């Protein structure tokens, strides 16, 4: 990844750049991120008078290769004998990666002069990376505009998602519009986007067999992260007497830790700390809440079973209070005090 390929900001989507489904597009996106339809960017406004015979996308008759599909389109007497910077109808964004001397426009996958593959860094304009192709995607996108696959990565973890949805349902936690995204390198919820739940894709991406994927761990991690999201979404609740009594001040300095390393596979309540449900819960009140949420949900909201286990492990009263507070809140009995 070379720094010089850092691309310029492309213009904001113009109203005429729309998919047939009506969704706005940016020029040269291969797929509509809303409906996933493949796009063909032809010479609709008659700028160059030329389209690739193979893919139908706009080209210049000075080109030797189609910059979109890589096909050899050299034509004697038309194609430029020496690479150009930018022929009519195209904009110069960078020099060819292979240094043939020609210019390329974002996001051409091939050099129109020598045909070499081009690498683009589109990170700055997008909120995340596609779990399939690694190119830039935004949180709201259903399909990746570059590879056309599910941009959220949810299709890679259907078992875990189905399981957690069912657990939330039987625990009677009402859906709050959360959105799960598989992304590289992090698991967590940013308080600025409380409904976006990011899951580290390392547990899934690159695994050849489905049985290599740690499903119980993913379900636990998902339940924990959903706990963070749920709390941010119900932040008013944290201002009540009852919540504070149970969970303390949740907004005291918080590092916004990455939860990736924690052992979310454990379904048993830890025996070590009397006043905590798990070791990780002791790190911060927000983590304590997320852990409470995880245990509550993975035990299907069955307080009696949970309390029996807490009793056997000789947990302090404060642990019970947390589960009770969540239980009552989920059932709409939070009373304000
Ligand atoms: Zn569309
Ligand atoms: Zn082509
Ligand atoms: Zn080139
Ligand atoms: Zn992709
Ligand atoms: Zn956490």
Describe what this molecule looks like in 3D:
A two-stranded antiparallel sheet has the order 1-2. A two-stranded antiparallel sheet has the order 3-4. It has helices at 158-170, 215-233, 241-247, 285-298, 303-312, 317-330; strands at residues 94-95, 103-104, 128-129, 136-137, 179-183, 196-200. The protein has 6 helices and 6 strands; from the N terminus they run ββββαββααααα. The longest helix is centred in the middle third of the chain and has 19 residues, at 215-233. The protein is mainly alpha-helical. Bound molecules: zinc ion (5 copies). Residues 130, 132-133, 135, 144, 146-147, 149 line the site of one zinc ion. The site of one zinc ion has 8 residues, from loops.
Strand share of the residues? Answer: 5-15%
In one word, what is the shape? elongated
Poorly predicted tracts of residues:
1-8
Tell me the radius of gyration.
26 Å
Compressed to H and E, one letter per element, the order equals: EEEEHEEHHHHH
Strand tally: 6
The ligands found in this model are: zinc ion
Residue share in helix: 10-25%
Query: Given the structure, what is the number of helices?
Result: 6
Structural class: mainly alpha
C-alpha end-to-end distance: 55 Å
Mean pLDDT: 88
- Report the major sheet: 2 strands, antiparallel
Strand order of the largest sheet: 1-2
